[in-house]
Design a protein that fits this description.
The protein contains eight helices and eleven strands. It is α/β, with parallel strands linked by helices and 288 residues long. It has a single domain, classed as Arginase, Chain A. The strands form two sheets. A nine-stranded mixed β-sheet has the order 1-5-2-6-11-10-7-8-9, with helices on both faces. Strands 3-4 form a two-stranded antiparallel sheet. α4 links the parallel β7 and β8. α1 packs across α8, α2 packs parallel to α3 and α7 runs parallel beside α8.
Length: 288
């Protein structure tokens, strides 16, 4: 199956299936158009895919080999350089096309800056948006652009989607006030624990879109990301949340965004690749 806006690129090394037959469908979004500090998110999809070459496909925790699962990779979006809205439209149209061909497919975005999550959410229309992120991303506009990466959660909230945020440790007073006015609940990184996670997400309506901004993790794990912040979460804390969410809630889609860098084998990409495998494994082990 061919898609209008995608092109072939590096893919996972184990056997892949056609998108019409897949449960999990990877889509890279190599967009870097509104990055406000460290550039390189355009290389994220390639870096993540390459980092998977370092990983065993067998997941010890789950007694599961994800190389045996129905996974497809439809390549990368041909981005509209410098235009986050037009690129997000291409993401939306591609996922809509995929879901028409295979309604049971779970799209997985690899990015790429966080602005592009909006296109996936618009296509999938989840009832709730759960995000792990260092930043609130609730600005109405940043650098005169309402589709800047710092505005993605604001645009999603305006769609009437319930939101819960975890690992937050950066934001403006105006963003905090908007969250309070809009009923958006969030947990500061220093206050994060599993019980706090369950408390916020247990009552959320389904289906749920899960987004991981790689900068949610401790900076030592993810040095190559657009807007790094000290004081982040640990890997297993996020995996534990994914396991609960995949077991208890219907998942509409998933992404790992803001992976940057210029060198293969970057620890940020290795963290993202491991997280990708755990999401696929958890969905297969615990998901509906």
């Amino acid at each position: 199956m061919e898609f209008l806006y995608t092109y072939e690129t590096l893919k996972l090394e184990f056997p892949l299936v056609e998108p019409e037959e897949a449960r999990f469908v990877l889509l890279g979004v190599p967009f870097d158009g509104t990055t406000s500090y460290k550039a390189g998110a355009r290389f994220g999809p390639t870096l993540i895919r390459h980092a998977t070459l370092n990983l065993e496909s067998y997941i010890l925790d789950y007694d599961l080999d994800i190389a045996e699962l129905p996974i497809a990779d439809i390549g990368d979006i041909a981005v509209a350089a410098g235009d986050p809205r037009k690129t997000a439209d291409r993401v939306r149209e591609t996922i809509e096309e995929l879901k028409r061909a295979n309604p049971k497919a779970i799209p997985i975005l690899l990015g790429g800056e966080h602005s592009q999550t909006l296109g996936a959410v618009e296509a999938l229309k989840p009832a709730s948006y759960v995000v792990f992120d260092a930043h609130l991303d609730l600005r109405d506009s940043y650098e005169d652009n309402p589709y800047n990466h710092a505005c993605v959660a604001r645009r999603i909230s305006e769609l009437g989607i319930k939101e819960a945020m975890f690992g937050i440790r950066s934001g403006t007073k105006e963003e905090v006030e908007y969250a309070e006015e809009s009923g958006i609940r969030w947990v500061h990184a220093r206050d994060y624990n599993f019980d706090a996670f369950v408390d916020l997400v247990e009552a959320l309506p389904e289906p749920v879109y899960l987004s991981i901004d790689i900068d949610v993790f401790d900076l030592s794990m993810v040095p190559s990301t657009g807007t790094p912040e000290a004081g982040g979460l640990r890997f297993w804390e996020v995996v534990e949340a994914i396991e609960w969410l995949t077991e208890k809630k219907e998942i509409a889609g998933f992404d790992i965004m803001e992976v940057a860098g210029e060198k293969l084998g970057d620890p940020t990409a290795l963290t993202a690749a491991k997280l990708l495998f755990y999401f696929i494994g958890a969905m297969s082990k615990f998901g509906r």
